[in-house]
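2024-03-11 09:14:02 DEBUG pipeline.ingest accepted 1 chain
2024-03-11 09:14:02 DEBUG pipeline.ingest length=122
2024-03-11 09:14:03 DEBUG pipeline.predict start
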Amino acid sequence: MIRVGLCLGKGRGVFAQQKINKGELIERAPIIVFTPEEWQLIDKTILTNYCFNWGDKQGAMALGYGALYNHSFNPNAKYIKNQREMAIDFAALTEIEAGAEITVNYNGAPNDNTPVWFEVTD
């Protein structure tokens, strides 16, 4: 259903291999949760750009394609922290055509326009 590919000006990204319907679960990415002490160390490395905040002063690394979805202030997908499954679910906000890049808003809420820590190339 999805694949990793190169994105001009962004590095890698996640793309739909077939049409994805609005509301459809794209991926359930299992996570590795870091303790607060480990998170402080990770936060000083490049890995921090690929992790999610998880709980109080903790972080998590998403496996699968979870760490490779690019940011957009006009996303076509969202992520949901799935505490029970120890995973991050990625679901389509809109219909996504085959070949389209799948993007999420790194702020969590799809309509949150709070600046992020890098220059956005939307």
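2024-03-11 09:14:41 DEBUG pipeline.report DSSP finds one helix and nine strands in the chain.
2024-03-11 09:14:41 DEBUG pipeline.predict end
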